[in-house]
Amino acid sequence: MTQPPPSVAHLIWEGQIGGIERLVHQMACVQTAAGMRVAVAMGRSVGPFVQQLAQDRVDVLDLGIASGYDVRPSVVVLTSACLRQFDVLHVHAFNLPLGIATVLSTRPVVFTEHGSFGVGRRLGAPKRRLQRLFLRRPSVTIAANSRFTAQRIASFYGFTGDKVQVVANGVQFGPAPDQRMRPETPGLVVGFVGRWAEVKRLDRLLRALALARRNADVRLILVGGGPCEEQLRQLAGELGLSQCVEFLGPRLELDDLIDRMDVIVQTGIESFGLSIVEACGRGALPIVFSDGGGAVEVLPPDGLVVDSVEALGEALAMLVGTPSLRAEARARRAAWTRETFDIRKTVDGYRGLYERALQGR
Q1: What's the rounded mean pLDDT across residues 256-263?
Q2: How far apart are CA 103 and CA 206, in angstroms?
Q3: Cα(318)–Cα(262) distance, integer angstroms
Q4: pTM
Q5: How many structural domains comprise the chain?
Q6: Is the CA virtual torsion 8, 10, 11, 15 positive or negative?
Q7: CATH code for position 70
């Protein structure tokens, strides 16, 4: 008789807009459709993804944790009891109350490191020691979203290479766009999707844009938001770019915006590069920096890697009107990306880790 699939609770902190939340949302939907019992447990049930999960009939568990240091016995005991109803706990974020509750639940854990530690966020010494103790537990199976992230976590915590399994993120792609219907626009439209934070190094993109515009009609769409918005707007003004840069806020629906982009650029250090995959899945040509971490791992065969602001500016200027931006190239790029990073492959990869965790128990 075939064994029923394990029941799984995904643990995240809250339901705000972000790459981890998008991935968990899509995985939960696919797992639910495959007949698995799935819930998303949030430390705080707030944010737009709470409503989206409800609309997609995925159970949301509000754990009622006030903060990352809320270790009141009543909260921890109730949380552990809530989690005990699932076969496997898939943890996407660590903090003290979640860590204690998962240990008390006695359930096997699959922990995914999404690579945010050391990339825009530093772990304090106490939290680092606690997380190391948590990850060294025999009941914890560790996964990473890229080889770059796997190497970082192994080095960060002193693990051997075989301790961390790589399961690439995937995307639940919508219908492929008909590239022949895409209107041709003069010049080049460059896009960036992500947080406007220092680690994203968006000053590189603005300076490269200024260089490219000396020789070509190049425009930029920035989608996101973050602490560096004022500095970026000021820099755009200083470089004479105010009229050719669109500063857009966070967006849940990206397809229409991405369809306007010829090129998607990531200038920062990425643990994976989800926005690149999403944009390539609709035909955009990706450009990343050679020191971009996991972003280099997700490029299609014709993706570009640059090693300086000057090289990026030159590449943007030279791309105007090239075959790489035409409908045929966009269609090939989209097909490769959709095949390589289908969310179902991610779900299958984690299904194997769930079963491994249960056997290890």
Answers
A1: 93
A2: 47
A3: 13
A4: 0.88
A5: 2
A6: negative
A7: 3.40.50.2000
